[in-house]
Amino acid sequence: MIDRRLLKNFDWGILFAVLAISLIGVMTIYSATRPVLDAEQQTYYLKQLYWICLGLICFFVVVSIDYRWFIKSAYVFFLIGIVLLILVLVAGRKGSGAQRWIPLGFMSFQPSEFFKIFFVMALSRYLSGIWRNEILGMMELTKIVLIFVLLPAILILKQPHLGTVMILLFILLSMTLTVGIRKKIVVVGLIIVLISLPFVGTILWGELKTYQKQRIIAFVNPYVDQQGEGYHIKQSKVSIGSGGFWGKGYLRGTQGPLRFLPEKHTDFIFSVFAEEWGFAGSILLFLLYLFVMLRGIDTAMKARDPAGSFLALGVTAMLAFYFFINVGMTLALLPVVGVPMPFMSYGGTALLSNFMAIGVLVNVRMRRYPLFY
Questions:
Q1: Domain ranges in the chain?
Q2: What's the rounded Cα separation, in Å, for the pair 292 and 320?
C-alpha cells in the first residue's frame, strides 16, 4: 500500500519525459522498418508498444517498494545477476556472433541489461557504508574492483559485449569519484596505465573477436573497410547529415527504409531520427534526455540518505553513458560497440531495465523527506 503523501511527491515530469522519448522511439522504429522493402519488419513498432506497457508495469512495481529494501537485498540481487551471466555462457542463445540471451520459449532476455541495475544497487550499499571515510584508499579501491567488477566484466566480455563493460566501468568511476579518491592513487594509476597500455593493449587486441577488431579499425579510419564495418559509420553520418537543420520530414527518410543504414531500428535509430527531424528535432530530443539526467542528479543531491544518493547517481550515470555512447557511435566519435539508445532503440530487455532504472530514481525522489522514515 502506497502512502498518499508519497503520491504527492511522485515525479510525473520524469515519467512523462521518458514516455515521450519512448513514443518518439516507436514512431522512429515504424519509420525505419516501414514496409518499403521488407514487410516482415513492420510489426516491430507494435512489439515495442507492448514492451513499453510491460515496462510501465515494472516501473510502478519498483516505485511501490521502498528503495531501502533494494539496498538491503542488493548483494542477493548481485549474486543472482552473476549466476545469470554464467548461465548465458552455458545455455545462452547465439546470434550475430554473440551469446547474450537466455531463451524462455516465448521470449529471450539479456541478463547483462538487468545486471547493470544490480551492480548499481550492490555498489550503492557498499559505498554508503564507507562514505564517512571521505576518500578511498588503494586497499578499498582494489577491493571494490575485485569484488564488484572483475568477475562480471570477464563474464560479459566472454559473451562478448564490450559496451556493457564500458558502462559498468563508467558507473564505477562516477560513484567512486563522488566518495573521493586519494590524489596519489589517481597519479600513480595514470602512470601505470600509460606504461602498461602497449602491453595490455596487445593482450586485449589478441582476445578481441574479428568483428570487434574491424569496428575499432573502422573507427580510426572508416575508409579502410567501406563495405564492412566502415560502412555502418559512413551511412550513419550520411543519414544524420542529410537531415540538415529541419530534417526531411517524418516518413520521408530514405537511409533506413531502403536498407542503406544497418541496424536502423536498434543501434543506429538516432541516425534515422536525425535524418527525418534534422538538427532542430535532435536538439529537442536531447533536451528531453537532459531533463531526465538533471532530474537524476537533483535526486541524488536531495536523497534522504547516502544509499539513496548513490542509487540515484548510479542509475543516472548508467542512462547518461547509454545516451552518450550511442550518440557518439552514430556520429563516429566512438567505436561501434552495440549500445542501444535508451528508451528509443528496439529491444524488450533493454527497455524493461531502463524503466526499472527510472522506477528506482523516482522511488528515491518520492521518499526523500524525513516523514517517510
A1: 4-372
A2: 9
